[in-house]
Amino acid sequence: MADALTGTANSVTGKVKETAGAATGDRSMQAGGMVDQVKGAVQKAMAPGADGQPQMMGQAKAFAKERPWATAALVGVLGLATLGTLRGK
After folding, report:
1. How far apart are CA 36 and CA 38, in angstroms?
2. Angle at 4 between CA 49 and CA 1, to 5 degrees
């Protein structure tokens, strides 16, 4: 729960920094705000859910259970893309 709250706080702070940076023309502050927003989003996604696992893992497991064929196709495509990248194609 604390990770989710920290993530939300980082997202809000980042949005404020981005807006302030855009208003003042400070690109460094604006970029820092964007980084804070991404950091907050990752923290919220990795926050443990009701079952103690990160929320993102719970969503992935639910998707795999609901759509096993789509999951298999997705894993296959990602595997082929990884192999192609490693081979340099």
Report:
1. 5
2. 55
pLDDT tens digit at each of 89 positions of the chain? 567 788 889 899 999 999 999 999 999 999 998 999 898 888 887 777 656 667 777 777 888 889 889 889 988 998 888 988 888 75
| Degrees, nearest 5: CA angle 46-1-9 | 80
pTM: 0.57
Pull the structure tokens for residue 56: 């993102």
The C-alpha atoms of residue 1 and residue 8 are separated, in whole angstroms, by 11
Chain CA centroid to CA 28, Å: 22
Which stretches within the chain are classed as H helix? Answer: 2-24, 27-46, 55-66, 68-87
Domain ranges of the chain: 1-47, 54-89
